[in-house]
Amino acid sequence: MNTSGKNKIFTIIVVVLLIANSASMLYFWWNRSDSRSGKNDPLDAKAFIIKELALNEQQKLAYQELREEHQKNLRDLHESFKEAKEHLFDLLDQENPSDSLVEQASLQTAQIQQQIEMATFDHFKKLKALCNAEQKKKFDSIIREAIRLISPPPPPPNGNIQNPPPPPINGNNPPPPAVDNRP
């Protein structure tokens, strides 16, 4: 076979591989964006609540207003929480911050977190008030699942994100914990 024949075959193989690679990348990109990267999504919770409670159109509108009000309140509270946490950790810049100053800054973050929890409780209390008697019974049975849908996923065990623990040896006993000397 001559050189031009080999070049044609090589070119065809390269083109086919490029097309296959592009198709694979598109497939994974499409599925990644659809799955929302495994994060809990408040929109899933909204759809779950509407479906499970069988809200009518009037209830859906009232629920949407409640959600918008709640989200605005939470945005403001989360911004305050972020500022309070920054203030707390800014104290690390000081050589020896007083314990009372650290405690006061820590208490401020705790108070804002309490406001977030109370606002969320109040939001669901208002949602329950929108429900009829049958929906209220259903509400009581689904509320924990709805909360799970909107809560952030739990941190990995031992806070070790990069290096998960190895699988158990011989299926019975877990291996000893890894030693991590990082501060």
Descriptive overview:
By secondary structure, the protein is mainly α. It contains 5 helices and no strands. It has helices spanning 3-35, 42-53, 57-90, 99-130, 133-150. Helix 2 runs antiparallel to helix 5 and helix 3 packs antiparallel against helix 4. The termini are far apart. The model is unreliable at 33-40 (pLDDT under 50).
What class would the helix/strand composition place it in? mainly alpha
What's the gyration radius in Å?
A: 26 Å
Q: What is the number of strand segments?
A: 0
Distance between the termini: 64 Å
- The helix/strand order is HHHHH
Mean pLDDT: 79
Major sheet summary line: none
Q: In percent, how much strand structure appears in the residues? A: under 5%
Number of helices: 5
Low-confidence stretches: 33-40
Q: What is the 3D shape? A: flat
Helix % is over 70%
What is this structure's SSE topology?
Blueprint: H1 3-35, H2 42-53, H3 57-90, H4 99-130, H5 133-150
Characteristic terms for this protein:
183 residues; mainly alpha
Give a short synopsis of this structure:
The protein is mostly helical and 183 residues long.
